[in-house]
Design goal:
Elements: E1 5-11, H1 14-33, E2 38-41, H2 46-52, H3 58-66, E3 69-74, H4 89-99, E4 104-110, H5 123-126, E5 130-136, E6 144-152, E7 155-161, H6 166-181, E8 186-191, H7 197-213, E9 218-223, H8 224-233, E10 240-243, H9 245-258, E11 266-273, E12 279-285, H10 302-314, H11 319-334, H12 353-366
Parallel strand pairs: 1-2, 1-3, 3-12, 5-10, 8-9, 8-10
Antiparallel strand pairs: 4-5, 4-11, 6-7, 11-12
Helix pairs in contact: 1-10, 1-12, 6-7, 8-9, 10-11, 11-12
This protein binds 3-isopropylmalic acid and magnesium ion.
3-isopropylmalic acid is lined by residues 90, 93-94, 249.
């Protein structure tokens, strides 16, 4: 196979800071594991708007379609709050998701043992937590038509449409069932079939796919509001949670906070296989651009580094090397190394973004 290609889009705020650290990790794998990547870099979000007047240039979109995987930092910031909706930084990210057809968004929420006390929930409720939210990412109310704001009888009306075809539900359901097979074999599908027709169809299609091809996986259904409650009541009852775009946005933030810090959480957005068999893919940390700490060397690079680990696993079939990187991060946390977001009363001074990566690289060295 050719050298795998990676497009790096640092984006805004701390995106650039954490992505620079990922660059060092990629360098380490090149030097020490002989894993070469053909890396290119471009702009997205506010950074792209500043240069091109749009949050994603067509040339960048074209590049993203060609590479084996895209790694994205974060988009947005107060500087762009008053921009027209159509050119807001977030539109760049949504365009990538839609045009690359990244329908399956994997958001693991794993509670590292060393961080179990950071959760707002009690330790025994979250310790050992390891769930995976599979969120549909290219349809539903984020993209449904009609949409917009117009005036009816002198009154403004805002419209978005929740719309799912059975093909859209089926493909993300398959993705969740496949992933569950590699984990503990359970899927809980969440919708609002009690009030929404799209939820009724969602439940029917998920059930049909399950009956036809995934009888070995245990399937349950839950209304999404109950799902939110169960996530904070007893999150360890779940393994894979399958849900739509909007519910997935909300439930994944909820699940993220169970683990203590957004600074630890990676994500993968996957589409259909390309000609070389690899899925279309974009990897990004769950956290945002964090303008409040930008430029202060405080950002936690772990989520972005762990997103690269997901790329190794899901795009490049390098699961062992992904595990090596994940273990290195876990070992650093177990040693008590903490960036500012992970400080607790009594902790000594936090390490900087770069020092966190130094510690991870030292563990990687130790793993050889
Ligand atoms: C996410 C974010 C995005 C979303 C925003 C930045 C458009 O909240 O990835 O969860 O709503 O999908
Ligand atoms: Mg979100």
């Amino acid at each position: 196979m050719n050298t795998p290609s990676l497009l790096i889009l640092p984006g805004d705020g701390i995106g650039a800071e954490v992505m620079a650290e990922v660059g060092r990790i990629i360098g380490w794998f090149g030097d020490r594991r002989d894993m070469q990547f053909d890396v290119s870099e471009d702009l997205v979000g506010g950074a792209a708007y500043d240069k091109h007047g749009v949050p994603l240039a067509d040339s960048t979109m074209a590049k993203a379609q060609e590479v084996d995987a895209v790694l994205l930092g974060a988009v947005g910031g107060p500087k762009y709050d008053d921009l027209d909706f159509s050119v807001k930084p977030e539109r760049g990210l949504l365009r990538l998701r839609k045009e690359m057809d990244l329908f399956s968004n994997l958001r693991p929420a794993q509670c590292f043992d060393a961080l179990a006390d950071f959760s707002s929930l009690k330790r025994d409720i979250v310790a050992g937590l390891d769930i995976l939210i599979v969120r549909e990412l290219t349809s539903g109310s984020y993209f449904g038509e009609p949409r917009g704001i117009h005036t009816e009888n002198g009154m403004r009306v805002g419209i978005n449409t929740q719309r799912y075809t059975e093909a859209e539900i089926a493909r993300v359901a398959r993705s969740a069932f496949e992933l569950a097979r590699r984990r503990s074999g359970k899927v809980c599908s969440m919708e609002k079939a009690n009030v929404m027709e799209s939820g009724i169809l969602w439940r029917d299609v998920v059930t049909e796919i399950h009956q036809a091809d995934y009888g070995d996986v245990e399937l349950s259904h839950m209304y999404a509001d109950n799902g939110a409650m169960q996530l904070v009541r007893a999150p360890k009852q779940f393994d894979v949670i399958l849900t739509d775009n909007l519910f997935g946005d909300i439930l994944s933030d909820c699940a993220a906070m169970l683990t203590g810090s957004l600074g630890m959480l990676p994500s993968a957005s996957l589409g259909l296989p390309m000609e070389n068999g690899r899925p279309k893919a974009l990897y990004e940390p769950v956290h945002g651009s964090a303008p409040d700490i930008t430029g202060q060397a405080k950002a936690n690079p772990c989520a972005c580094i762990l997103s690269f680990a997901m790329a190794l696993r899901y795009s490049f079939d390098m699961g062992d090397e992904a595990t090596r990187l994940e273990r290195a991060v876990e070992a650093v946390l177990a040693d008590g190394v903490r960036t500012a977001d992970l400080m607790q009363a009594g902790d000594t001074a936090p390490v900087s973004t770069t020092q966190m990566t130094d510690a991870i690289i030292a563990k990687l060295e130790g793993s050889l």
